[in-house]
Write a structure and sequence with these properties.
- Helices cover 75% and strands 1% of the residues.
- It is mainly α.
- It folds into two domains: 1-154; 158-320, Up-down Bundle (Four Helix Bundle (Hemerythrin (Met), subunit A)).
């Protein structure tokens, strides 16, 4: 811990607002995919050559997604300017720069998906980067929060912490990584049904089974993480996050089953129903929330171990 930096309430609230806007962007993107609206607007960056086309049908979802994305991009630019002006920690500024680069790449990939008729690989990368960008903003929100506003070098003791038998930290990190990989597999499943630029209701068998196996692995890791945290942690915040993590997992599994059932029956329909759109979009949204809670829990455990290690080092120096 250092004293070179201090808490900036306005900046913290702004990061939280940008994070919430990013979550809305993920939902907006899921609505585009769920409504098969990916090619409702055939050009980019304009929409039918206009800044504001007629918002009807699939155009409403696709253009709304673009407007939310542009807003998030603008917020990220402002955030980086703000960080550059008042933030003294170089690692926080670098994280902001990486987040800005990521959102720019996101915009370019979004344009490519339209201009090249929804290529599966690009669509999957586009969806995966959105979740990664969301994670970066969550990390920034924690870094600028009152608790960690003076944290100068958060990873300086990571090697020492990782080398110890901190099973709750290991499991929290592994489960977070597994959830992120599972979200990538979910993106593969959603986009691999695209045929000649048209999103169909086709569920590709191999993608479905890999996603199911991934769900089993995530469930095992999350349950193990929560059990170890309940056993070893006394922090009320950490325990609350663990409860929230297992609750979101159960909800996500339930929504995954419902999303499969509605998608499996959609092959007989020309257009997605509101029920199908609701369950598929909710599955994506809760997946993002589960990733967010898992990441916060992992970072909280890492920081607690780091602070404990720092306190023990100081105590040894004082008693030595």
């Amino acid at each position: 811990m250092g004293v070179e930096n201090s808490y900036h309430r306005g900046l913290h609230y702004f990061v939280l607002m940008t994070t919430c806007a990013t979550f809305l962007l993920i939902i907006a993107g899921a609505l585009v995919t769920s409504n098969d609206a990916g090619l409702s607007v055939p050009d980019w960056p304009l929409s039918f050559g206009q800044l504001m086309p007629e918002m009807s049908g699939g155009v409403f979802y696709e253009h709304s997604h673009r407007m939310v994305a542009a807003s998030v991009g603008l917020l990220t630019i402002i955030l980086n300017i703000w960080l550059w002006k008042i933030e003294s920690r170089s690692w926080v500024c670098r994280l902001g720069n990486i987040a800005l680069a990521t959102v720019i790449i996101q915009g370019i990939l979004g344009g490519i998906t339209v201009l090249f008729f929804l290529p599966v690989q690009v669509s999957v990368i586009h969806a995966s980067l959105a979740q990664l960008f969301f994670c970066m903003l969550i990390a920034l929100s924690l870094a600028i929060s009152p608790i960690y506003a003076d944290l100068m070098r958060p990873l300086s003791c990571l090697k020492e912490i990782w080398g110890q038998k901190n099973w709750e930290v290991h499991l929290a990190v592994f489960s977070t990584a597994a959830i992120y990989c599972q979200l990538i597999l979910g993106a593969v499943l959603r986009h691999s049904g695209t045929v000649d630029g048209t999103k169909g209701a086709v569920l590709v068998t191999w993608a479905l089974w890999v996603h199911i196996l991934g769900a089993i692995l995530v469930t095992v890791l999350v349950c193990l993480t929560v059990l170890v945290v309940f056993k070893k942690s006394t922090s009320r915040v950490v325990l609350y996050l663990a409860y929230l993590k297992i609750s979101l997992l159960l909800l996500q599994l339930f929504l995954g089953i419902l999303a499969y059932l509605v998608r499996a029956g959609a092959v007989y329909r020309v257009q997605p129903t509101m029920t199908e759109v609701f369950f598929v979009t909710s599955h994506v949204a809760i997946g993002a929330l589960l990733l967010a809670v898992a990441l916060i829990l992992a970072l909280k455990l890492l920081m607690e171990k780091r602070l404990l290690s720092s306190s023990q080092s100081v105590l040894k120096l004082q008693t030595g």
